[in-house]
Amino acid sequence: MKMNDGQALHSSPYVEQIEKFAHSLKQLSHTFLGLEEKKQSLSGEEIDGMFDRVRENVCGKCEKCGWCWGENFVHTYQIGYEVLSAVDHYGNELNTETKRKLMQRCIMAPWFLREMLEGFHDARQNMIWTNRIARSREGCAIQMDTFADMIRNTAKELEESIFTDERLEKRIMAALRKRGVRVLYTQFFMNREGKYEVHVTARSMQKEKVNIKDLVQDISAAAGRKLIAQSDSAQVLGQRYMTVICREGPAYYTMQGAARIGKGCSRISGDNFTMMEMPGGRRGVALSDGMGSGEEACRESTLVIELLEELIDAGFPEKTAIQMINTTLVMGREEIHYSTVDMSVFDLYSGECEFIKAGASSTFIRRKDYVEHLSSTSLPIGVMNSIEIDSVKRKLCDGDFVIMVTDGVLDALPVGEQDILLETIIQGSAISNPKEMAHHVLEQVLNWTGKEPEDDMTVLAIGIWEC
């Protein structure tokens, strides 16, 4: 299939193999979900086991055992079921009526009751462990299913983005040959926005190293597009083969600043944040607020941010990464430790920003003549196996600011007026420096309260401008 003259889509066998991996993971996920489900009540076999336990350990020593478990077994089972029902409803302290009936019908009532209680609690403990295993298995299934969707989408995007262009390849090889560079091979990609990405594997044919900037300029001239080297690219090309990745330059750039303070002016904050370079000409800013404050909250939010950085850097989509972190935090934990996740992902080609929230506080967008605030009703991560993640996109313009805050900032303001007051603080400032903007917002909130912070407080300010 032709892209235009000299260009054709390229189907890779590696893409097909990735699709097979995704299908296998889906099958494993469905198998996990189809195994033993969580138990809502005790089974008939478990109840029969309790009666067998009582008959062996208690009734076997009683002279009336043959009669109770023979011709009168119906009444024996009836009182046993009444005891189990009362235990399930009242706990170990049975209601008076059940105790009276048991004393009337059984000469070994105290021992009968004790054995029934022990059997019941053993069975219930077994049910708790079974359900815990089922929840962990469900979490693993969700992880595999999410991962399968991710690699399937990645394979599809990769297949759609790869193309060949023999004419362009020859132009690049000829241009670099003049600079004394030998090209081993070239790969071409095009993203959804029609932006080029060129991977050139080459080496210098001379002892002198070639400046990567000069090499990228030659590739740009041959392609007829303004390309820039990947941000973490090497500075020079030597005599060993190396792959240089060139992408079309973005139309926008961002700058950011942060201001923070711990609860009671503590130097340790339970809030953590990160700023990330992301694939496809995007930039991400993530903020996490750990449960409570102090060292434990700091450890929790640090874990979330580090996992998020790791998964995003590996190429996982943002929502997929958050879902996987959530499942990881839920599985294998006795107590609930939750953290919020607040992400702003800036597309530096289009100027669009996606706001992704899991239990996070409001985000504010300062435009030229008004302030917009975006709120969320989703749960934080670490509470349930599967969560809803709120997401909304907004087109930003030159000079717009995104202000991200943790709950401690809004909670310091009067209830019912929090969003309006923070909007007023943000709109009332003409500051264009992100760091100064973040400090201004935090200082204004602290001045409003007139006292030490009652929770950790963090403000992130990100400005976007046209290149």
Describe what this molecule looks like in 3D.
This protein is an alpha+beta fold and 467 residues long. The protein is 45% helix and 23% strand. It has 13 helices and 18 strands. It has helices at residues 13-34, 44-57, 65-68, 73-90, 96-105, 109-161, 166-178, 212-223, 294-313, 318-330, 407-411, 418-427, 434-449, and strands at residues 7-9, 162-165, 181-190, 196-204, 210-211, 227-229, 236-237, 242-248, 252-261, 271-278, 282-289, 341-347, 352-358, 363-366, 371-374, 390-395, 401-405, 457-466. The strands form four sheets. It has a six-stranded antiparallel beta sheet with strand order 1-2-3-4-8-6. The chain has a five-stranded antiparallel beta sheet with strand order 9-18-17-14-15. The chain is elongated and about 105 Å long. It starts with 6 loop residues before the first strand and ends with a strand.
